[in-house]
Amino acid sequence: MDNTYVVIAIVIIALVTFLTRSLPFIAFGKRPLPSWVTYLGKVLPPAIMVVLVCYCLKGITFSTLHGFLPEIIACLITAGVHVYKKNMYLSIIIGTICYMVLIKLI
Amino acid sequence: MKELRFALKQTFPIFFTYVFLGIAFGVMMIEAGFSILTAILCSVFIYAGSMQIAMIPMLISGSSFPLLAIMTLFINGRHLFYGVGFIEKFRKSGWRYPYMVFALTDETYSILCSVKHPTNINEKNADFFIALTNQCYWILGSLLGAVAGSFLPFDLSGIEFSATAFFLVVVLNQLSQYKSKIPALTGLISAVVFLVVLGPEYFIIPTLTVTLITLIILRDVISRKMEVAHG
Fold this sequence. Notes:
The complex is a heterodimer.
Chain A: H1 3-28, H2 35-56, H3 69-85, H4 88-105
Helix pairs in contact in A: 3-4
Chain B: H1 2-31, H2 36-45, H3 49-60, H4 65-76, H5 87-91, H6 97-102, H7 106-114, H8 123-148, H9 161-177, H10 182-198, H11 204-217, H12 219-230
Helix pairs in contact in B: 1-2, 1-3, 1-8, 1-9, 2-8, 3-4, 7-8, 7-9, 10-11
């Protein structure tokens, strides 16, 4: 592979990635924030976090059991452990181990 | 350094996700014929998990630069929505400002959204260390994968679920903290609708856009709920 091509490609991907992360900051510069932006800053996080869970689960398919059952069961176990024990480390570790076992079994 | 210790504790769940996904990335880069250095440079300067993995086949096939830029915009477009809540906070972070913006990944975003700082630590340093330790995990994983990936004796398939579990736990925590469930419901409904209608490739940007617009429209309703509950 041509080295120059790879280097330029990496620079482009790095710049565009940085652009997506910095756009809200560029857009509002140093001006005081309009009240609707402050409002969005408060209400977007819970919405985005739910969307991120869906983003992680976007690959599930319902045509085979293997396509969705490990994800669903592991999510239920993670949520169950979390509601019961309120310890995020424990919930994540147990949920992940269950998932790693389930994808072998189902 | 109590800020660093605090950050290590907060980022512990991400340690697994980033180290193991980093290993996966490192292994894929080496198998695709790239050098160890190239893999590390990507994790230092790009620092975007799904994009770094998606770019490998694109680089191999020699995709054009505009196409690479568009794909990056597409895959990382969701990050456009993350900064909104951190404008005030990052502005005040001084020399850390550019790095805080650069390092705003899904995982760092969700920690910063949910973190509760104890009163005796410097918040700016704590947040900076949270962002930095996360990237260190990612670089460490990439290095391990690139150097020793094919010798690793254990099967790690499924470890990526730790990210899903982490986001799920943050959602559960937020549900008990937020007085209004409308934001979370809005996100859930639009994600499911667009996932069914548009499929997994294209749903994320329309989902976030519609969520944003809906939350603006419902501003009065949601604000009232939050205020009543606070008062």
